[in-house]
Amino acid sequence: MQQEKETSLGDGRRGRLRVFFGFAAGVGKTYGMLAEAHELLLMGKNVVVGYIEPHDRPDTNRLLEGLPQIPPKKISYKQIILTEPDIDRIIQQKPEIVLIDELAHTNAKDSRNRKRYQDVDELLNAGIDVFTTVNVQHIESLNDIVEEVMGIEVKETVPDTFLQQATIKVIDVEPDELIERLEQGKIYANENAKRALQNFFIPHKLDQLRGLAIQRASDHINRISGKTIGIQSKLLTVVNDAFPKMTEKCIRWTARLAQGLGAEWTVIQVRTQENTSTNIPLAEKLGAEVVSIEEDDSFETIVEFAKMTGVTDIIMGKNLRQPWYEKIFVEAFDDRLLKRLNDTELHLIPFKEEKQSLFFRTRKVIEGGGKDLAIAVGGVFLATIVTELMQYIHVGDQNLMLVYIFFILLVARTTSGYFWSALASILSVLSFNWFFVEPLYSLTVYKQGYPITLLIMLVVALMISNLMVRLKKQADNSMEKEHQMEILYELNKQYVLAESRKQILDISATYLSRLLEREVIIFDRQAKLESVYCVTGHQSILNTKEEAAVAFWTAKNQKEAGNGTDTLIGAKGFYLPIVASGKTLAVLGIERNASLDLENGQLNYLKLVLTQIAVILEQTELKNEKEQVELENEREKVRSNLLRAVSHDLRTPLTVISGIAETLGIGSDLKEETRQKLLTDIQEESQWLIRMVENLLSITRINMDTMKVDKTAEPVEEIIEAVYKHLKKVYPEGKIKVELPEDVIFIQADPILIEQALFNLVENAFRHGTKEQPVKLTVRLQQEQTVFEIENYGEIPLKQFQKIQTNLSSTNEVPVDSKNGLGIGLSIVKTIIHAHNGKMEMTVGNGKTMVRIYLK
Q1: 3-class DSSP state for residue 14?
Q2: Which of 138-147, 150-159, 579-588, 642-651 has the weakest average pLDDT?
Q3: Contact between residue 816 and residue 826 where contact means Cβ atoms under 8 Å apart
Q4: Residue closest to 769 by CA, chosen among 789, 788, 791
């Protein structure tokens, strides 16, 4: 398992499955698979043998020679050694093609997966192509037909959905030739061959299996090639949990029809018992969507569902052993459907199955209903006492029956099931007859009309009690669903407030652990722990390397694993993948064992919550990806703007320096005054280049990955003082007036960057403003923001101002000459202020230019 964990999740390519398909043992499936493997090996393909069933057939064994083999894994079971394919080693070696025989085989007890097709699925998920063999009798949807043909039930089956994307090569042979092979000992040894000839290798049975295999392969090829796309069919199978055999038969029949038509189909399960599972594993294995509904008003639900989803065919069972009284008093379900759904075809599958006896269905209630029995008998007793009292005070004989009816309602309301309210109804009629109908203390009735009255009383009591029980059951179901929706609503509200993936997973683990009263753990897709929550007073049993390995398998294969599944059943937890858009986002683990199992209702609710978690995690990932893309775009814009500004601003001073140097080099007769003037110009242009380099160096303090800076609490006075000293050093003749507030102001900023930004703005004010008037630098507080104002006398020319305004309001930099405008200085200031989450604006008017910076 450790080897598997070290294996990466792969490149996402799923391997191809090639199935050598036959109708019986000995037709040559393994032989054909090995022969094709030799051909591919000669073509240079990386082909290995993962497992070939040791049938001791000489022709097959000869073909094994020359093929690379990965030794099978040996497992000891009941003092015998069993061999199984070594899945971990195959994945680690990762050949192009691997040969795995007997797809429908059931693995040894301590294997990772219960079925071999699950092993093959792992190999396919790892991107390895698999060649395998299977017989028609092992196809799940054909299981009932095979049982009719062969007279035995085949236990080892493969779900039809597993073979949907496979390529099938039919290995066919005449039944007579197959029997001849068997008699020659080419298939089984002598004793086994004799048994096979007597039981299985019978000509008419082989003919039927052969026809079934060819038909199944034909349906598969037609579906793959798209010949059935034009048939717009939608199938609906209606089953009842009271008839399990009928359910299997209808599902398999529909699966075969869906395979032939290439149609989608749904199974509606009518639940008559509270402990019935809300999912049907057989239907899900065969590719159906399962919908579970309650028995009450099930007919209307089915009709509306069929209309809403556009069902074209309904498949349901027709019970040939239906009781006579149901045929007389109850209209057949199929007749009712035909009346309501005129445009829908109805397919009836005959079956002979009886419902569980009334005693069997009520035995559990009777055995565990001591309290309910006391309530039923006590209710009748109290009704008798109250009725006796009312008769004594002459309330009226017409009201005496109503007292019993009232207490029957109370019994129905306070007990569970129909049995106790029905018992109370019968006891009430008998008690009323015994105590209040003459002759008293006798069940004999002489008074005219009273037998009819007692009969009506019994019928009314039974109907009212039945109605009360149904209403109570519906109310309980509604309350349960309402409670679930309330919890989901509260959970979603917490998700909305969550700001990170960590918070979402912590909320989920805590909520589910408290709801299910057991440990809950969440891993990421690489099986790294992200969140765990244990019941108070308990230590974690799921936070181990072994459990993490199970979670890794779940993430990689996007399937349930662990305790209660067919994969890695020795785990202490039950693991479910959290999947969205085909990608595993996380893995949820729940403590599970024999004493702490998960009920059907809990499983269904758990999967509903998982859907919510998947949605919110996907939204969080998309949000993070969007922010990352926006950040990358912002970084790219900053780089582009700086590059444009640098290339534009460096050109002017370098051109000037180059031109002056050339003049000095060829001008030997230049006057000293002219020479000094040119040298001064070189010095000024060099200083300008130095200041631009300082600007560029200041940008390196900004983290280009996050476009953020390291902020500290800095007093504004110290920043302004540093700016003032720098200005006096570079522009000793410049005039500046500084106004600061009386109170000390602290800002969260990088002081060096803010100094550079203010220096650039004051420098531009010196250059563009009136020399006689000072530049005014003011700092003030405005609505919890610190505002820096740089004001100078003199207006920037209109065209230059328009370019600057464009640069301030847009993401694209408009080239501005540094000697006449802001140039790179503007880009630097914009970047610095943006990194501080601030804002910058410029106004021109009344002979003045004002620049404002807003920082929080």
Answers
A1: coil
A2: 642-651
A3: yes
A4: 791
